[in-house]
TrEMBL record:
InterPro entries cross-referenced by the UniProt entry: Homeodomain-like_sf, HTH-type_TetR-like_transc_reg, HTH_TetR, Repressor_TetR_C, Tet_transcr_reg_TetR, Tet_transcr_reg_TetR-rel_C_sf
Keyword Iron: no
Domain of life from the UniProt record: Bacteria
DNA-binding positions: 98-117
Annotated HTH tetR-type domain residues: 75-135
Keyword NAD: no
Chain spans, region Disordered: 38-57
PROSITE patterns in alphabetical order: HTH_TETR_2
Keyword terms: DNA-binding, Repressor, Transcription, Transcription regulation
Protein name: TetR family transcriptional regulator
Length: 279
């Protein structure tokens, strides 16, 4: 999806081409063979034969203009901006994600990005939610233990797919659809298994914190960092010295699987305890 700066240049609109004008993303539909130039929006230029006016928030608007129909979809605002921000994240890291960097990535001016995403914090929230997009609930296994494991692994994979994504998610309280969908699926899985509402909700947080914590450490570690724990030997810390060879042993995936297994075992014990208490 392309993002264009309102009123900066004329564009030729052809079938299926995306354009962004002053009030959102417009899907350009051409009703005949003619090419029609569109310039900005009201207050930024002119549409040949078009009409002005900005729709109310959340409403769509159609503009008929010399064989071109612009169907504005405000719900699509910011999609291209978020995609560009994720590209900046992947190529340059979280510290380099700025409104100006996103604008440069899109080839537009800084204020154009702010038109679609009002501030950097909102941009980071939308980015964090986009990281968790694409959960296919129908493809998850049905047994609750397998389902919990699959959800945890999917979440870890989604975060690892983007550079610094764990740090991005850790710094935000995101209340957006993809984030809600993941939590809702995890909690529903546990409720269906017979856990209480409290246990289901808190187990969801426990597993998410596990995913986030170990993934954050993995993404933050420098590949050149020396592994000193393998040779740690200090009489002040006898237990740590004895177990030193295991502290840094194994891959992050192996450590994650071990920790996740402990969580699932604890949940199974809790479920058995609830069953015994009921009888």
């Amino acid at each position: 999806m392309a993002v264009e700066e309102p009123g900066v240049r004329d564009r030729s609109c052809r079938p299926g081409r995306q354009a962004v004008v002053d009030d959102g993303v417009a899907q350009v539909e051409v009703s005949d063979a003619r090419t029609v130039a569109v310039t900005g929006g009201e207050g930024h230029g002119r549409r040949q034969g078009g009409t002005g006016g900005v729709p109310a928030h959340g409403q769509a608007r159609r503009v008929e203009t010399q064989g071109v129909r612009l169907v504005h979809h405000p719900v699509q605002r910011g999609v291209a901006v978020v995609d560009a921000a994720l590209e900046v994240l992947d190529h340059q890291g979280l510290d380099m994600v700025t409104m100006r960097a996103v604008a440069d990535r899109l080839g537009v001016q800084h204020n154009t990005v702010r038109w679609h995403v009002e501030n950097k914090r909102r941009l980071l929230v939308l980015m964090s939610d986009a990281v968790l997009a694409g959960l296919d609930v129908a493809a998850l296994p049905l047994p609750w233990e397998d389902r919990v494991r699959a959800l945890a692994h999917w979440c870890r994979g989604a975060i690892l797919a983007h550079r610094d994504a764990a740090r991005l998610l850790a710094g935000l309280a995101t209340t957006e659809p993809n984030t809600y969908r993941f939590a809702d699926t995890m909690i529903q899985t546990l409720l269906d298994a017979g856990f209480s509402h409290r246990t289901a909700a808190w187990a969801n947080w426990t597993i998410f914190y596990l995913v986030l914590g170990i993934t954050h450490e993995q993404q933050a570690q420098s590949p050149e960092a020396p592994d000193r724990m393998m040779e740690f030997n200090d009489p002040e810390y006898p237990a740590l010295s004895e177990a030193a060879s295991h502290v840094a042993a194994g891959t992050y995936e192996e450590r994650f699987e071990f920790a996740l297994n402990m969580q699932v075992v604890a949940l199974r014990v809790e479920l058995d305890r609830m069953g015994d208490a009921a009888t």
